[in-house]
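Posting for a labmate who doesn't have an account.
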Amino acid sequence: MELPHGVVRFLNAAYHGSELPWGELEAALEQLWLWLEVHGAYTAWPEEEGLLDNIGYLLRQVEQGGDVRAPLETAVGLMNALLQERRRLGLCQDECLNDLLLAASATHPESEAVRERLPLALDRIACLRGRLEVFSEQLVPEFQAEIARGLERLEAALLAGSVQEAVQAALYADVFQEWERDWQQRSEQSFGKYAIPEVGPDLEEIVARGWQLDRSRWGLGVWRLRKVILPRLEAIWEERRQNALLTVPLEQVEQPVETALELFRQALPGLNDEQLTAEQALSALEEALLALSTAFARFESARLQRDSLSPTLAAYYDLAQGILLESVPDVHLAELLATEPPGAEAAVSLREYLSTRDEEHLTRALSHIAEHSRVLARERELQAEREGGLDGDLMRWSRAAACGGMF
């Protein structure tokens, strides 16, 4: 649960001394009250009722006016605590399915809380079936069939109101989603020929088989490219483009990916174009994929990697990401800057951002943070080398002394 955009805009206006957008705050409050109504339809553990009451009390405080930041942020913090505890108590790792199963366990299968959640849960099962079909080429047939049967059992149990059976069948959803996460992680770490996230290995396989097979047998591969891989690739790019924190301006690395993606789209009809030879069609596809691979590699190299940062710099990373997504107000950045400033150049750029609200300054600060992190990492490496060298000398001198001399 993040602060609604309307709350963030209101807090930013208050911090920067702009006209307060009361309408946006009221709309955001409606969202928070709706959240409380939905999640307060049942209690998953005894103390949860008090937590829900406290959230309602804080929202009423906001409605009374005055300093709204503290009660708003406290309320959202309690909402996150409630969601985290429900995940910990979870009957299923999938958040949507877990919500329904907890509601059914806390109330009864015919309760309003369950009836309201059932359509979303059934949609989620349908989505998992679709994902299962997408990965049919990567899955062992017996495993795929077993997961499909498990999802059928889960759906039937939910419709029949059999909570215990549904909890047992939900394990199949967990197993499949765990497999999918592992597969995506392996794909990211082993690009092979094409450095294209998630779908690179599939593209490499399709192109290789295209060169091996007669053109009359390309049908399945072309279908996968059009109906499975292209939509997935477009979704991957949109998600990465929107959420990436870059050390260079977005336009420097965005346009090459867009151009290469369009080349890929244009190459697909040629696979069925009889006016082109098989070699011409595959060569055009390979050229587009190599361009896309290069563009994605450049984009990925410009991303700021959180796990390479110190705790303080990682906090700036999280704040910058939240600011760009309008889920964190600028005042949080100002407070961290006052207590734990980053390197001098990054601090200057961050103050410029707070003064102008120009996101280019935020991007420049991230670039400085990345460089500062690399400098610190190199200093640690050199220090380790020096200490290792000293330890080595001491060990050699100690061994020599034990033998009765230095030489």
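Reply:
Got it, the structure tokens are right above this. The CA atoms of residues 396 and 406 lie 9 Å apart.
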